[in-house]
Design brief:
This protein is an all-alpha fold. The protein has helices spanning 4-14, 17-29, 58-82, 89-112. The chain contains 4 helices and no strands.
Length: 118
Amino acid sequence: MDNNWLYIGLFFLVAPLIPALAILAPLFLAPKKPNKIKSQIYECGIETYGETWIQFKVQYYIFALIFLVFDIETVFLYPWAVAYNSLPLFAVFEGVLFIIILLAGLVYVWRKGDLEWV
């Protein structure tokens, strides 16, 4: 196999098989013993009443997205903070610019009122 394109072609053939096997394997290997209790809807141990499938408020998703943004900010800033003493001045300015952009996003969602729990 001297040709590098052959490796890439082989990768594109084999790569879809691994997730497909992971998805299809439980269909054949998992035990199938349905009963009345297993098919009931479970929601924190409380019996449901009325319509079970309800829509959540969009505010939950907005809170989750805001949390995700600032969580990822921490992941990106940690290596920068660890190597702060050995960074060139340009990298320090880039890090400060990154923090300013995130603070602008925080001010935006704060003024918009998305951080207030209703």
